[in-house]
């Protein structure tokens, strides 16, 4: 009875309404993520990928179901809130502009004929943060309500986060995955930052310390990526800079870090994380469930492949995007493969178009490796499958030949790569040529490979083997269907079919494929957005998609398949906003961030006050900052996070209470 009274005293009807909406949104997303990922997702992200499941199924269905509920709760409260709208509050002004511009972006997207699914989805997602803010701001009036809702959000996230479940399979430590039952992005960062700050500053620090240690196994059964560590470090650095002058703070801060470090070391040392996960993973019940969902997944995957193959039978003719046919001498047993002459240079080095040292035509490709670390790959790549029907190369043997030269006596070779998008395909992914002899002369290398079945990504590589830096040249590249002697193939090369004649080059730095893909996205957005002034100002509207078929990340083509030329996801937040909402939408968001930072700086004095109330507002601010920081690298993570909007709403309620108190005192 006392517990019921305690809950009743802290959750009145108004707070309960806000908590219910938050509960509905988070729990529904978790359930949908659990259902779709367990039913459809493969175990390898390069073979059908969890990214597609989240992007293509979880978020749209979540928006379709949760959207009407969310609007029914929030829009009436917005209309009531407008009556007392504070025209001097910078955050609220910018959020109102945000909402207004979301409507404009919807209209622009409708005029451009964007997909209705993405059009309504973007409009809903972009409205979550401002609508959540005004909804919470309308119902939470007292400090008691702020604390109650914050604790509800935190501990509900901990409950969901504590289930180390990926689909029906318990993920063991060695198979770390960013997915889990909770599925909402950066939940782990929200929880860790909140508990670490509360454990450092709160009067109940030992309670929060125990909770923090308790959830560490769940944290390390997931994936704390580089961005997550960057967020946590940023939050801790801000807290340290604000509180460093307080008596005893440094000791408390060091104690928390020491306890966390020791806990992580013990978990790691005694395999406390992996031991429990392995037990559950091999438990008979879970084993049966895993077998069942794997069987369902394989059947669905086989049916999709059969349908795509059937469509290919209906139109067996090759559809060549590049209409110009290769000219030159063709051997009767081979046929020149005609493709767009686009070369991607990836890794630790730089490239030049060389007009003097050449073998065929007007120029060659010169590239220079600048890092002696063998783990830092450096290669040139041409993707040939993009110009043909999907699976056109299935079962066909192709031969790639190219003239190579290095004056520095370095080693280089050719490679044909086919990316396996089907879990059941067998055979090697690569076929390599012989290695350049290093004789200081032009040498024609060839490599042949039979492309495996159900393969839709076929690439030609010019691969550097050397451990040291060096200079390399490539010219007279050609690819044909069939297998042919190197001397005959070299005789077929001419300036018209030479892959390194009148070609375009895209260069990507020596980063992982994910970063390279984001750089590529930014480049495509900038090329598209500057087409005219109206597009630059207003973008292409909500629901706009983009052609990412030339991405340096091969998993993009694997994940999206035929949809790769109309991809909705744009990772980098500034470019996602610029593409869909134009320079005006990007400016609104940018000014909102500046206003938010200015507000945080003004409230530093308030944070230094004693009591958990001030600490909670500090935690809320820092969590909003880390969610925005997460969105910089993956825009969708910010816009699907209702936690961000609710945190902002609680900050707004606290600021309103502070203003009211100051007015009363005066």
Query: How far apart, in Å, are the first and last alpha carbons?
Result: 43 Å
Biggest beta sheet summary? 6 strands, antiparallel
CA-based gyration radius: 29 Å
User: Level of helix content?
Assistant: 55-70%
Topology:
Layout: H1 2-10, H2 13-40, H3 50-81, H4 90-111, H5 116-139, H6 143-161, E1 165-166, E2 169-170, H7 187-201, H8 205-220, H9 226-243, H10 249-269, H11 272-281, H12 284-314, E3 335-336, E4 342-347, E5 349-354, E6 364-369, E7 378-383, E8 397-405, E9 412-420, E10 430-432, E11 443-450, E12 455-464, E13 470-481, H13 486-492, E14 504-508, H14 513-529, H15 533-538, H16 554-560, H17 573-602, H18 604-607, H19 612-633, H20 635-639, H21 642-665
Helix pairs in contact: 2-3, 2-6, 3-5, 4-5, 4-17, 5-21, 6-7, 6-19, 6-21, 7-8, 7-9, 7-10, 7-19, 8-10, 9-19, 14-17, 19-21
Q: How is this structure best summarized?
A:
The chain is an alpha+beta fold.
What do these coordinates show?
Strands 3, 5, 6, 8, 11 and 13 form a 6-stranded antiparallel sheet that branches. This protein has a 6-stranded mixed sheet with strand order 10-9-12-7-4-14, with helices on one face. It contains 21 helices and 14 strands. It is of the alpha+beta class and about 675 residues long. The longest helix is centred in the first third of the chain and has 32 residues, at about 50-80. Helices cover about 55% and strands about 15% of the residues. Residues about 40-50, about 165-180, about 275-285 and about 315-330 have low confidence and may be disordered. A hairpin with a 2-residue loop joins strand 1 (about 165) and strand 2. The two termini are about 45 Å apart.
